[in-house]
């Protein structure tokens, strides 16, 4: 499905600010895999997503999605295959445009639809149908400007935008971290439902170790640009937060030092 072969990325090479953010990362995802990712501060988690979505190009290695070589493909071309949500609910939507217009933009980006002639009745129906599934009443507020929605409603709309046309891969970069706990749980539940229904291959960065173990079928731990643990199947079943922290310590010879993880405990 998604295969990363020996990915390396160094920022500011040859300068005093040189930083090797990814060091020989190799990873293979099966269709429908839901991988949760946790790691220390600056471990390279967001950089990994930036490589997959084409925000930056890799220094070496390759990224293959099914039979498509993404390695040198421009970011806007990859957007057709890859959905991405960020921590900040303001990212990824146009706040001064309505819900309907935002969905139309997403549709244009992912389905290649041209909107010179406005939004058709069928498209409005499709958007309404999709929004109704969120169970937030947004299907009756399609003319509301996205900037007027709460953080949770906005993340739900962004999720809808990213999955309007089912992506091959969905990247969730701490997408519930800025929400209050109740709203975060609701958005996580919606995420799980959407991912399950459309069998979307998903990677989710989280600072909540319990969520990392509860959601998905596989957990990756990163430290200093490397994947140091990749846990799935029987080994993952019944694993506790403490077990995972101990495994991290054993592999990295240090205690997990992620400020946000520590604040969550
Ligand atoms: N655009 C950039 N220019 C220079 N250095 C960068 C850039 N992006 C990331 N880095 C550096 O690469 C390393 C990995 O950063 P990254 O944001 O991927 O880590 P992370 O695991 O997501 O961290 P955190 O959990 O703290 O957000 C860090 O040292 C960071 O400072």
Automatic annotation (TrEMBL):
Residues 2-249 form the ABC transporter domain. Keywords: ATP-binding, Cell membrane, Membrane, Nucleotide-binding, Transport. The keyword Transcription does not apply. The keyword ATP-binding applies. It is found in: Cell membrane. Gene3D superfamilies: P-loop containing nucleotide triphosphate hydrolases. GO terms for cellular component: plasma membrane. This is ATP-binding cassette domain-containing protein.
């Amino acid at each position: 499905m998604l295969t990363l072969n020996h990915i390396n990325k160094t920022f500011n090479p040859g300068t005093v600010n040189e930083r090797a953010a990814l060091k020989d990362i190799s990873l293979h995802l099966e269709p429908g895999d839901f991988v949760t990712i946790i790691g220390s501060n600056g471990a390279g988690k967001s950089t990994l997503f930036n490589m997959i979505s084409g925000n930056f190009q890799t220094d070496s290695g390759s990224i293959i999605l099914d039979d498509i070589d993404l390695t040198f493909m421009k970011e806007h071309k990859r957007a057709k295959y890859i959905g991405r949500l960020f921590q900040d609910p303001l990212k990824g939507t146009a706040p001064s445009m309505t819900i309907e217009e935002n969905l139309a933009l997403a549709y244009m980006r992912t389905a290649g639809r041209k909107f010179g002639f406005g939004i058709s009745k069928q498209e409005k129906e499709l958007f309404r149908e999709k929004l109704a599934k969120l169970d937030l009443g947004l299907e009756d507020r399609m003319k509301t400007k996205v900037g007027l929605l709460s953080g949770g409603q906005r993340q739900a709309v962004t999720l809808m935008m990213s999955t309007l046309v089912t992506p091959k891969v969905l990247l969730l970069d701490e997408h519930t971290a800025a929400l209050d706990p109740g709203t975060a749980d609701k958005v996580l539940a919606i995420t799980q439902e959407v991912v399950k229904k459309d069998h979307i291959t998903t990677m989710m960065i989280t600072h909540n170790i319990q969520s990392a173990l509860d959601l998905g079928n596989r957990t990756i731990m990163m430290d200093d640009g490397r994947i140091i643990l990749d846990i799935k199947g029987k080994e993952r079943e019944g694993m506790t937060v403490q077990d995972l922290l101990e495994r991290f310590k054993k592999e990295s010879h240090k205690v997990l030092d992620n400020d946000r993880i520590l604040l969550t405990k």
